[in-house]
Amino acid sequence: MDAVALEAAVLFASSSAGFTVQRFAVDHPDRTLAIVLSGAPWSLRDTPGAYGLLQTVSNLLDPVDPDFVRQFVSSTVFRPVPAAFLEEMVGESYKKLPAHVWKAALEGLLEAVPAAETATIRAPTLVLWGERDEILPRSDGQALAAAIPDSRLMTYADTGHVVHWEDPERVAADDGLAQCANRSTARWLGPGSRSSSRGTEQLFARTLQITRGALGGTATCPKLTAPASRVCAPYTSRHGEHEL
Questions:
Q1: Is 0.85 topped by the overall pTM?
Q2: For residues 17 and 20, what is the distance between their CA atoms, to the nearest angstrom?
Q3: H or E segment and range at residue 68
Q4: Any idea what DSSP says for residue 158?
Q5: What is the rounded distance in angstroms from the CA atom of residue 38 to the CA atom of residue 206?
Q6: Cis peptide before 222 (omega within 30 of 0)
């Protein structure tokens, strides 16, 4: 956020990055306008598949087998994504992450307690879920939406675990994202405020530009180098569930 000159933002997190964004929202409510959790787990503590993966990861040796990584990454999508993009994601995981990092990261995730379980997230929250997600059950998204007071669960048809990989244009253009300025500007200015803030409008314009540039929309953001799990995304939210 500091790198892209955002004092406060809507934070977009995919999969296990949701743990980090939840924690940020609790620890820094003044910098969190809203959050988007895409395919994020409620908890991995009671997920048999995660422990099975840990057993496999515990046997990894350096260099990490790219075929193992390719199989794992491919399992996160339901519809095909561009081959070059998929190979880039595979390379990010096996070229830069040694075996001990895979193991330590997964062990940490299995022990992680979601911030929404122990504290109240006040920021408006949008939970995105792919109905063909084979990594995590839909009940995780429902649990997140139930635990966060001002939240909304949106399900994407024919989409797997990593929603923004499979349909980046749709996510970037989603009405929920585009309408965030109205919902969060009111929160930013405070209840009952009738004033407007040029700085706040510029904040959301910049935030929306960054998001759509990262997710595949028409806007561009030349200075952005962070992956989408670290990007800010405007949207509007209300408690309840909406099927797309």
A1: no
A2: 5
A3: helix 66-74
A4: T
A5: 21
A6: no
pLDDT digits (tens, 9 = 90+) for 71-104: 999 999 999 999 999 999 999 999 999 999 999 9
Tens digits of residue pLDDT in 8-60: 888 899 999 999 999 999 999 999 988 899 999 999 987 777 888 889 999 99
Q: Which residue has the tokens 């935030």?
A: 207
Fold of 9-43+122-243: Rossmann fold (3.40.50)
Cβ atoms of 219 and 209 within 8 Å: the answer is yes
> What gap in Å lies between CA 8 and CA 31, rounded to an integer?
4
CA-nearest of 52, 12, 17, 15 to 32 is: 12
Helix intervals (H) in the chain: 17-27, 48-58, 66-74, 83-94, 99-111, 115-118, 138-147, 163-166, 168-173, 175-178, 180-189, 198-215
Widest distance between CA atoms in the chain: 60
CA distance 237 to 16: 21
Q: Where are the domains of the chain?
A: 9-43+122-243, 48-110
Buried b (16+ CB within 10 A) or exposed e, 198-219: eebeebbebbbbbbbbbbbbee
Cα 4 to its chain centre, rounded Å, is: 18
From first CA to last CA, the distance across the chain in angstroms is: 30
